[in-house]
Amino acid sequence: MNRLNYHSKNKKKIQKNILSWYDNFGRHNLPWKNRPIYEIWISEIMLQQTQVKTVIPFFKKFINKFPSLKKLIHADLDEILEVWAGLGYYRRAKNIYSACRVIESNHNSKFPSNFDEIIQLPGIGRTTASAIVTFSNNGHYSILDANVRRLLTRLYDISTTVNSENERILWYFSEDLLPQSRSSDFIQAYMDLGSTICKSNKPHCSECPLSNLCITNTNNFEVDDYTPIKKSNKSVKQEKLWSLVIIDSHNNFYLEKISIGNLWSGLYSSPIFTSKARLIEWAKSKNLAHFFTKNFCSFQHRLSHINFTINAFLCNVDEDKKISLIEDNWYNLSNITIGVPKYQNKLIDKFRLE
Q: Which partner for 178 in 103, 142, 273, 308 could form a disulfide, CB atoms 3.0-4.6 Å apart?
């Protein structure tokens, strides 16, 4: 079958069916819809590699903390990471901070509206820039995220092999389908269809507005064979970490910036180490050896690619004793204003004084 002829013949019907479905079933109440370009930018960065339902509460929290670009520009990285904590992929938060520096120096502290300028900001690629521009009504650009890629692959019976030629074909169809009228609704419909109907596993083909136009469906091909192939996932690694939870007599926790490779970069945690020996060596260097208690806990903490076993010891320190810890790194639970990883909350729940 000649896909280009098929596309040309059915283009208007595909567009009409997608928009009609969106009017009836699309997600119209997303908190970043019809909002200023600043909020659209934040939402699009958060939505990278993260589902909508997960992003919504974090987006609301972020905008409540930084209701304007001006306020965000004046924030330091620790403040941004504190609000971001728990959402994961912390490089995105760092990209937001870096983008603020560019916006401040190159764009007079105003978020740019031009595609060519937006795509130059840290953390923004072609799809993210296209979404920001289109959703803010500053242009008409299509997208090719995972949802749209899967939808088009099945619709036009395109090979799932990831290569430059298939990428070019997918971008062509995505861009050529985009109508000049209601382009913002259309790309939102693209994403909604892919995430709620044309899912990677067990898609709801009977509910799809394109079921009678989808080459994969109408030819009774196995739909799971038309899920774009991702790079093979390596087996989840099993690793151990050792933490020293340090609490003073006022129930203040000692926290410091983490430096375990690129994991949790920029967040604060009880001192954490890759071996028990390093933990003990560090404790001795800080004159903490005499403050170890018998309290110990061990638990699993899972990331997408690593399953950690975190082993934690407790130190209860007397503020009158001479210990070599940074004075400003003590935090009371009532006024923690820094970002902490999820495992740190488990440590706090385990060892906090009642």
A: 142
> Residue with structure tokens 């990471």?
81
pLDDT tens for each residue of 24-59: 999 999 999 999 999 999 999 999 989 899 999 999
Half-sphere exposure of 258 (CA within 13 A, CB side): 27
288 torsion bin: left (phi>0), alpha (psi -120 to 50), beta (else): alpha
**Which among 352, 354, 346 is positioned nearest to 331, based on CA atoms?**
352
Q: What does pTM read for this prediction?
A: 0.76
Catalytic residues: 44
The tens digit of pLDDT for each residue in 68-118 reads: 999 999 999 989 998 998 888 888 999 999 999 999 999 999 999 999 999
DSSP assignment string, 164-210: HHHHHHHHHHHHHH--STTHHHHHHHHHHHHHHTS-SSS--GGG-TT
Strands 292-302 and 272-273, bridge-based pairing: unpaired
Give all strands (DSSP E) within the chain, no chain letters: 237-248, 252-254, 256-257, 268-269, 272-273, 292-302, 306-317, 330-332
